[in-house]
Automatic annotation (TrEMBL):
Domain of life: Eukaryota
UniProtKB keywords: Electron transport, Heme, Iron, Metal-binding, Signal, Transport
Protein name in UniProt: Cytochrome c domain-containing protein
Native species: Symbiodinium necroappetens
Record's signal peptide: 1-30
Amino acid sequence: MIRSLALTRLAALLLLLLPAALVPLSPALAGDPAAGRAKAAACKTCHGLDGVARIPIAPHIAGESEVYLETQLKAFRSGKRTHEIMSVIAKDLSDADISDLAAWYASIAFTVQMPE
Ligand code: HEC
């Protein structure tokens, strides 16, 4: 009885951990950074090719996590997140475009300097 309870708990724990373990292997995240760099020509006026924003209302996206970038671009595309510029831009992006762009911007390393 005690032993089967422990096994049930272990099984429940494994079920909880399984999705988290699968996230990095998700094919949706297998973007190609080189292809993304080329596609980022459509983004550079505002976010820069290097992911450092060129206009005050655009966020820096250099080094942002791939999962986050992909989630936000899909949210703009689906209408779950709306913005007058980004909603129009994301509308025409394919899943592959989004993965490639996310891979490119996520691959950029950056350093920060705290104020004195
Ligand atoms: C004309 C300017 C412009 C262009 C071009 C543009 N963006 Fe944006 N982007 C913005 C602005 C402004 C925001 C902030 C949206 C908001 O306030 O919700 C934004 C937000 C984002 C975000 C969300 C970032 C966050 O921190 O949540 C991502 C990701 C993003 N853009 C990616 C892209 C990609 C990839 C492209 C090219 C395919 C692109 N953008 C092209 C202006 C632009």
